[in-house]
Amino acid sequence: xxxxxxxxxxTTIRLLKAFRLEQKDPDSFYGFxxxxxxxxxxxxxxxxxxxxxxxxxxxxxxxxxxxxxxAKCFVLEPFKDELFWRGSPPENxxxxxxxxxxxxxxxxxxxxxxxxxxxxxxPAKFITEMIRITKHGGIIFFCFTSWYSPWGGHETSPWHYFxxxxxxxxxxxxxxxxxxxxxxxxxxxxxxxxxxxxxxxxDGVKILETCPRYYPLWTKPMMKVPILSExxxxxxxxxxxxx
Length: 243
Ligand SMILES: C[S@@+](CC[C@H](N)C(=O)[O-])C[C@H]1O[C@@H](n2cnc3c(N)ncnc32)[C@H](O)[C@@H]1O
What we know:
The protein is α/β, with parallel strands linked by helices. The chain has two domains: about 10-145 and about 190-240, 3-Layer(aba) Sandwich (Rossmann fold); about 145-185, no CATH class. It has eight helices and seven strands. It has helices at about 10-20, 25-40, 60-70, 80-85, 125-135, 165-175, 190-200, 230, and strands at about 50-55, 70-75, 95, 110-115, 135-145, 205-210, 235-240. The protein has a seven-stranded mixed β-sheet with strand order 3-2-1-4-5-7-6. Helix 5 links the parallel strand 4 and strand 5. The chain is globular. S-adenosylmethionine binds near residues 55, 114 and 115.
């Protein structure tokens, strides 16, 4: 399978429409998202024969995609429920935390993390650990949903615009069940500008790309526009090389 992608508006529309499938048909939704994410990544690196760690890889949709593209992929996931979400855990999985990866420094070709950063309290620590385990010349990819995007509050959206606690309480009152992504506990307010600040303070990496993950690359300039970028970017992808 060759996933190299040239994203255009039609792909963006398909991706955004796919969000409606998340609850009804998660296999199609996550499978499609994984295929698209690997398409973006493969514009910056070959996948064939690469060793990959998918950090916060959950049920393993990305790792299946990596393997289909000839990579040797391991999944690191701290929560058993996520790992076993599809019945059995993904091939080559490790139960561990992204803050403290049980691998030697400089050991993988690609450190990969999709939509995990908004779920960790200390993003700088998380990214530093991703960099540590990556070989020199290797690639670090991460992406996240920014807080002020329409999906920033996840299942509580768009009420997160009135505050994370408000949105959680509203959801729990309405649906009489706890939220999965709890504000300030398992879902954090992370902004595009926070990540640019964080990138400015990183050593030992070259930034190859920062872009909206779901849109064509020509929309990139919007990421430099304060306020607008927070709402419109939706999901920010960062691709770096360890030097
Ligand atoms: C929204 S899911 C994303 C799953 C998968 N990466 C994807 O994009 O389909 C967020 C994942 O991050 C994981 N996670 C949360 N905190 C983490 C941590 N400290 N280290 C590694 N993974 C973490 C969660 O368990 C969950 O599987």
